[in-house]
Batch of 2 targets.
Target 1
Amino acid sequence: MKPVRLYCAELNDLDEPPPWVVVVRTLSPFPQLLLSVVLVSALLIWSPIRLLPAEWRHHLPGWLPTALAFAGFVPAGLLNHRIAYYVEIRLNPGDFRYDRVMALAKQFNVDVKGVVELRDGSASAFARPDDRVAFTRGLLRCLEPSEVEAAMVHELAHIAKRHPKKMALSVIRHAALLIGIWFGGRWFIETHFAVGRALHFFLHSPIILLVFVPYIRRRVSRRQIDVSECEADKMAVDYVGNAEAYIHVLTKTIDYNRAYFQISTEGGTPSPSPTFERRIAAIRAYAEASAVAGAAENGSDGNCG
Ligand SMILES: [Zn+2]
């Protein structure tokens, strides 16, 4: 089997995704897109209701604007689905890349539901809550076949550890908590203070949730991402058998994306993100711990915090 030739043969046939898909993917990754569509539709739906004569408005149930705001998820979901239709290609048995990923899944005893190729020129791979692994065409262009497979092992580890499902649940939990705080806080303020028209509008508009977005991002993302990346990196390092070679794969992908998105590196290489630096440090710590454990014939492995 000659993986190199097969990957390259596919690469020569690459066509770029339609420009609007690239623009949407670059400007707003799906969660942000979804959130903004919900909030914008909430505001759009909100205002006309407030314009109705007071005696009409009186007959409308109080929960209606909120319900309509959340109905914004429907168009957002349809748009998301439409984009996915253009971007996604589900690979089938017999496709070389599908078979390779499935063979790796078998080797690591991971129950993976499918393999998705994305018509996207940037280099990335991810594991999805539906237990499919996805990679972009840009990743195939950026990495050597053996390096693509290291990236796939990393994504398989995410599925084995149920990270995408846990992350999705965590986002839902935090969103539910925030909505609870929103309703509870509003009730408290309105029963204890005289609320003017502007404050009333603000308190009832879902735009108030935007205030909490940075909080959610910090709470949900940072620690959870650090731990899950560390766990997935461990399996990939074990597969590659060399921490520095694996770190090279990660660095190469970041450099490729900088060039792809034309992020300027003039005036010196921009420093890697703190997240990436913590990740590299964790990979080296794990490699050192396993080298020590290997010498001592001891089952100790690095700690993901
Ligand atoms: Zn990962």
Target 2
Amino acid sequence: MSASPPARQHNTSDRRPTRLLTQNSELKPLGVWNWSLPAWAGRLADGRTYNTCPSAGICRFVCYARSGTYRFPAVKARHEANLAFVLDDPAGWEAAMNRELSTPRFTDRWIRIHDAGDFFSDDYTRAWLRIIRSHPRIMFYAYTKEVARFRRLIEPDPPENFLWVYSYGGTQDTSLDPTADRVADVFPDEDSIAVAGWSSQEASDLLAVLGPRLVGIPANRIPHFLKRLNGRRFSEWQTEVDAERADRRARSRRARLRAVGDTTGRSAEPSPLRRAA
Ligand code: SF4
């Protein structure tokens, strides 16, 4: 048997976090623990690139988890170590999460899945489903923009101890139905939430899954974020961006058809007769 070159190893086992669940200043008073990944896209220390929020839209421009304390080197390294653990040793990560959740401190508590990041793949989502089902005495919740994945993998048979809210500002916003889905939108401020008739979750993050179905989140008071938000809701901003993109695509398609028509001397538009056939 000939020897093949060794596969590239990502030796991150020595940097694995010993504890997977933490509490931040917002969730600690509620007794909620959370699991976090690094937000959106980046590069791990070993050079691998990642995107933990594949359906993020405009939210990435004003992402709370890409500013402030989340950018502290120790915090960022911790979140990246979490991600590396999931990617390098998914079975080991799942076992470690199950072990940690089996300790009495989490019994009858809430776990927020993802302070930052999202359900970035089917395998990762299925792993969470197995974890959630293994711990019926723990309640889990999440915000997500992975609408299609949830419709396919979670909605048909959701675990009883898992609640979620779809959040606007992603590339799948148009798949959301605010008359039926539990949805969260970021608003410029508390007043605009009340004017729209939505319910603010400002008093407790758990209201996002336990309160009324239309969940309003007041925007972070970060001046350059507020400037970009420009008085809009995330859903409105995303709709504008989607419309601009559709318009750009239509214009470039028309330009391509015109160019083909110029080259051949014929109109590149299909014959209306053929179209009707
Ligand atoms: S999905 Fe959440 S964590 Fe990811 S970029 Fe958007 S706001 Fe940030």
